């Protein structure tokens, strides 16, 4: 993409914000971010998103080309590279020419062998902390300019907010699903055994503990089949909650 004027950039970022807001989940948001990065940031041929998981480990969650995943794998294998640097430390990392890169020689050799000559990485940051990195790739040396950094930095800020929002929305959706399923399961037990809400919930917890099954899965099984696990019928919780007992 060529030079972007101030007005054009403002329009592009506004359109980006609207399009990302319309995505339904984290998976689609990640794909939308990488696709938009190629169209928005000057010099970009390929884009990828490296995301930090629960154990602070990074992995590539979205990529516009399989070449991105190969280059990222070289970083995971060597434990070095611009994307990892952006994830954990630096806000912006720019590699003008991987054939002359001295900071991460092992990674640079492998990336250059794959045909990548220049890279630009941005930390995706929100108030809660780093989410990962937006990574841009080109087969041409010196592909990324100061303008690329400026546009990419603004783009990454929008992307971080969109990704954080998608994660919150998914967590909210899962919370509502869990609450609804457990409520339905409690209702079935309360009617079947003339049990109180507390007794029904205690029974679900005991079944979860005895079978080593997540509470949400116990509730889902009951609502789908109308049946508890067989060993749940021996539960002492049912002693005070049998059909006709209340």
From TrEMBL:
Keyword Kinase: yes
Keyword rRNA-binding: no
Domain ANTAR: 162-223
SMART domains, alphabetized: ANTAR, GAF
Protein name as annotated: GAF and ANTAR domain-containing protein
Keywords (A to Z) from UniProt: Kinase, Transcription, Transcription regulation, Transferase
Pfam family, one: GAF_2
PROSITE patterns linked: ANTAR
């Amino acid at each position: 993409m060529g030079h972007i004027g101030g007005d054009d950039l403002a329009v592009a970022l506004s359109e980006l914000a609207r399009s990302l807001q319309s995505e339904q989940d984290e998976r689609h948001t990640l794909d939308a971010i990488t696709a938009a990065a190629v169209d928005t940031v000057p010099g970009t041929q390929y884009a990828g998103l490296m995301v930090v998981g629960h154990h602070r480990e990074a992995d590539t969650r979205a990529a516009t080309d399989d070449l991105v995943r190969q280059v990222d794998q070289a970083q995971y294998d060597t434990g070095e590279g611009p994307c990892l640097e952006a994830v954990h430390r630096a806000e912006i990392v720019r590699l003008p020419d991987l054939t002359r890169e001295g900071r991460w020689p092992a990674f640079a050799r492998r990336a250059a062998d794959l045909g990548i000559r220049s890279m630009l990485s941005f930390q995706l940051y929100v108030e809660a902390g780093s989410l990962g990195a937006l990574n841009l790739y080109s087969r041409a040396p010196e592909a990324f300019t100061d303008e690329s950094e400026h546009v990419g930095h603004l783009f990454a800020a929008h992307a971080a907010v969109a990704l954080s929002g998608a994660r919150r929305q998914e967590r909210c959706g899962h919370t509502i699903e869990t609450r609804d399923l457990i409520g339905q399961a409690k209702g079935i037990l309360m009617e079947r055994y003339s049990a109180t809400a507390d007794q029904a919930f205690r029974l679900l917890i005991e079944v979860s503990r005895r079978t080593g099954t997540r509470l949400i899965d116990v509730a889902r099984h009951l609502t789908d089949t109308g049946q508890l696990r067989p060993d749940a019928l021996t539960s002492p919780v049912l002693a005070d909650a049998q059909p006709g007992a209340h």
